[in-house]
Structure formats: C-alpha cells, structure tokens
TrEMBL record:
<feature type="domain" description="EAL">
    <location>
        <begin position="24"/>
        <end position="279"/>
    </location>
</feature>
<protein>
    <submittedName>
        <fullName>EAL domain-containing protein</fullName>
    </submittedName>
</protein>
C-alpha cells in the first residue's frame, strides 16, 4: 500500500514537472513569435530618473513589457529569465536595442535629447557581435552613444570578467555609460567594482523601498553612496516609493532617484508628456518638507 502511494505521488510529481516544463516551452515559443511578428505584444515603458544633483530629468530606464496574444501581462522577470536560460536573450536584446534606439531617434527629431538605460544580460555583453551591433544601430538611427546607459548586474559583470572588462572599457571610450544594476544583493565588493570600467552604481530597490522605516537600510545606503562617490561613481537609488525616502536620499547626496514616488514606468508618449510638464521647482518642494 505504501509503495503504491509513493508511486502515485512520484508519478504525480513527474507529471507536475512535465506540465511546468511544457508551459515554459510554450511561453518560449510565444515569445519567439512576439519578437518575430513585432506586432505590438512587446513594448517598453520608460521610467524617469530624477537627477537630484542637477535638478533635471533627462534620463529614463527602458523596461520591457509583454502583453501576450490572450491579453495577459507576463512578468518581465519570468520571460527574461526564460530567455536567458534558453539563449533567446541575445535575439531579444537585439530587438530591444533596435526599438529603444529608434525611440531615441524619434524623440530627437522632436527636439528631446534623452539618455536611456537599457538592461543587458551576461550573454549579451559576452556575445562577439554585441559591440558591432550596437554601433551599427546608433549609426543607422543617428543617435549618440552618450545617450545610452548599459545596465548590468554585479553577477553579469564578474562572469568572464576579463572579456567583460575589455568590452566595457571599449564601450566607455566610445562614450556609452555603464551602470551596475541591483547593487548590493550580489557578491561583489566595492573594491572589486573599483577595477571595473563603470560610471554608475544603482542601489537595489530592496534597500530603498522601506528606507524611511529602517535605520539599518539608512546606514547601508548612506555608506554605499559615500563609498560610491569615493570611487568616482554616480549613485542611483531605485524603488523610491515615498517623500521621506527621497528626502533621506537627498541628505545622503544620492545623485539620481528612480521609483514610483517620482513616476511609475510610463508609455513612450506619456513619458514625453510627463517630461515636458515636469517642473523643476517641484524638486525643491521635496526639500522644503
Ligand atoms: P530592474 O532593471 O532592476 O528594473 C527595476 C524594476 O523595479 C522594474 O521592474 C520597475 O518597474 C520596478 N520599480 C521601479 N520603481 C519601483 C518602485 O518604486 N517600487 C517597486 N516595488 N518597484 C519599482 P520590472 O519592469 O518588472 O522589471 C523587472 C526586471 O526585468 C528589471 O529589473 C530587469 O532586470 C528586467 N528587465 C526589464 N526590461 C528588460 C529588458 O529590456 N531587457 C532585459 N534583459 N531585462 C529587462
Ligand atoms: Mg535595470
Ligand atoms: Mg535587473
Ligand atoms: Mg534593478
């Protein structure tokens, strides 16, 4: 009897795994179709990055969105993860790069010079054609390298470090900016980061979201900002959800802030409307309270 129960449990388990596997395969096929068909299922939201040092907003992060054929929102963490595991990420990132640069060119013809952050994966930066492709796209759309920030996580940066350092050094010499995304949850120390050719440190939102309520987070964040500055880096806080946290970040001398309190990620058109109507005096209002 026991054996029988175990057996059916095992069969059930295997069956469950099978289903999950098939669902992932199906999602992957749907994602490939979405990229190839290019019919609006995949698009971007742009989240403003408020520059506290210079009191301006001329930077944004491009965040991919997928509303599939059935009208369902698919979490980017899920499909990006799947794309990374399957190797589809290289194709997806090329599509991302083209679309974002096309958007930058469009804004440029309207007279708006925006710097956009693009999220990359380890496989992208290590791919032999990455730099050529990027250069080809900016040339095609007549966009300047200085308008593009490349975001990589600590993990992406230390994998195959020698190659990555060489590539980023070259990209930086061409005027691209490099940002370390989700900083603080990976393994690398600031001394390791010191050797990397980077411009920006983006403190992970897990340290920022409840900054106003946690003294520990405040200690971590203020010292990270100070150390980042010592290394000559610009520091960004992501996940700023309230006024109190923004005020603290200002006191800590954080250079840029990004988060729901400043703005949610917006559709391209909404982003430009927001950008145009954003009034700088509003920034000093944060300071008054
Ligand atoms: P990320 O690069 O760290 O992006 C920041 C995430 O935090 C975004 O989630 C954003 O919507 C969210 N966020 C912004 N402000 C707040 C806030 O105040 N509170 C909270 N709780 N969250 C906030 P999203 O858009 O779901 O993206 C998740 C991740 O997916 C990104 O994390 C990035 O790693 C990846 N991703 C997004 N777009 C792309 C892309 O085009 N290519 C690649 N390779 N990865 C992407
Ligand atoms: Mg990012
Ligand atoms: Mg990330
Ligand atoms: Mg992040």
């Amino acid at each position: 009897n026991f054996a029988k129960t175990e057996q059916s449990r095992i069969r059930y388990y295997v069956h469950g795994e099978d289903e999950a596997y098939l669902a992932r395969l199906q999602m992957l096929e749907e994602l490939k179709d979405a990229i190839n068909n290019d019919d609006g299922e995949l698009f971007f939201n742009y989240q403003p990055k408020l520059d506290l040092s210079e009191n301006k907003v001329n930077k944004a992060e491009a965040l991919i969105r997928w509303i599939n054929k059935n009208g369902e929102f698919v979490n980017p963490e899920v499909f990006i993860g799947l794309a990374e595991q399957s190797g589809l990420i290289v194709t997806l990132t090329r599509w991302v790069i083209t679309k974002v640069i096309e958007q930058l060119a469009d804004w440029q013809t309207q007279g708006h010079i925006i710097n956009v952050s693009i999220n990359l994966s380890a496989q992208d930066i290590q791919h032999p054609d990455f730099v050529d492709f990027l250069l080809q796209q900016i040339a095609l759309f007549k966009v300047s390298a200085s308008q593009i920030t490349l975001e990589l996580t600590e993990r992406d940066l230390v994998e195959n470090e020698e190659l990555v350092v060489e590539r980023l050094t070259y990209l930086k010499s061409l005027d691209f900016d490099v940002s370390v995304d989700d900083y603080g949850i990976g393994q690398s120390s600031l001394s390791k980061l010191k050797r990397l050719p980077i411009d920006e440190l983006k403190i992970d939102k897990s340290f920022i979201m409840k900054l106003d309520q946690s003294e520990t987070d405040q200690d971590i964040v203020s010292s990270t900002i100070a150390l980042g500055h010592k290394l000559g880096l610009r520091v960004v806080a992501e996940g700023v959800e309230n006024k109190e946290s923004l005020q603290l970040l200002r006191e800590f001398d954080c250079n840029l802030v990004q988060g729901y309190f400043v703005s949610r990620p917006l559709k391209a058109k909404e982003f430009i409307d927001w950008y145009l109507s954003y009034e700088i005096p509003l920034v000093s209002e944060y300071k008054m309270d």
